[in-house]
Amino acid sequence: MPTELAPGVHRLATDYPHVCGLPLWLHVIDAGDELVLLDAGIASTPEAATGPELKKLGHDLADLTLVVNSHAHPDHMGGNAILKDRSGARLAAPAAEAGWLEDNETLVSELWGSDPAAMDLDERERAELFEMLGDRVRIDLLLRDGDLLPSGDRRMRVITTSGHSPGHIAVLDERSRTLFSFDDVQGRGQRYLDGNVWLAPLYTDVERYVGGLQRLLELDFDALVPSHGDVLTADQGRQKVEQSLEWVHDVHEFTTASLRRKGSLTVRELAGSIGTELGDFGGICLQTVRMARAHLELLGRRGGAEPRWHHPG
């Protein structure tokens, strides 16, 4: 049965744990004449999970009027086409990520293929990724910071955080004082359900990630609700944000020390070290590669490194 977080606000289970070994929760808000779904899951999620979960609440997919994508990663927008077909709901998503949300090739080439010397997808991985992404459809409503969602009798405010991905948003439901942080509050990573390894935090720009986290600390909320973890009280949520900031600091110190010690580093070398020495992340993966590049680029902007990532001393 879906979990009620507040009157009219429910947390929905998904099929993602069976597909990728990680928890993923979607959220539905009853807003009078509007039924709002926060995030779409992967392509299989609407029929495998969201529809059945809605039926337990007396709804079905056809009742949805608005689907909000927090950002353009497969587990948050892969179900868009099916949801649009089944419900006719408007699709709303960050304006900054419209190119990714409407074109799978652009998303995959710019996110997974942006650093081929550090990592690349093989044919099987690429096929699995495109299966999760599903078909693309046009976004009806492009969201910007401070926008209010067209959410019936509820005020739901968009907060741009731009950390986990370039246009990532959070949503604050002002009535229930529930802050949906989606993927931006990552702490020191997320443990896979089998318990063997962790999924590393993912961010592509250090300063934007830090700035987005600091914005969340300025908000007034009673609950912080991530997509891949437990619902947190206000105090727990703020602690998790602080833990996320501490992780960034630790990675930056590690990057600076590694570069000083070795004299030069490739993104791949640093990603491998982050993925084994700072956390049990399995070495080189999308998350550690993007982290490594983000911290090296920050050092470059501050004069602490030079392309190809040599220590200036």
UniProtKB/TrEMBL annotation:
<dbReference type="InterPro" id="IPR001279">
    <property type="entry name" value="Metallo-B-lactamas"/>
</dbReference>
<protein>
    <submittedName>
        <fullName>Glyoxylase-like metal-dependent hydrolase (Beta-lactamase superfamily II)</fullName>
    </submittedName>
</protein>
<feature type="domain" description="Metallo-beta-lactamase">
    <location>
        <begin position="23"/>
        <end position="228"/>
    </location>
</feature>
<dbReference type="InterPro" id="IPR036866">
    <property type="entry name" value="RibonucZ/Hydroxyglut_hydro"/>
</dbReference>
<dbReference type="InterPro" id="IPR050855">
    <property type="entry name" value="NDM-1-like"/>
</dbReference>
<dbReference type="Pfam" id="PF00753">
    <property type="entry name" value="Lactamase_B"/>
</dbReference>
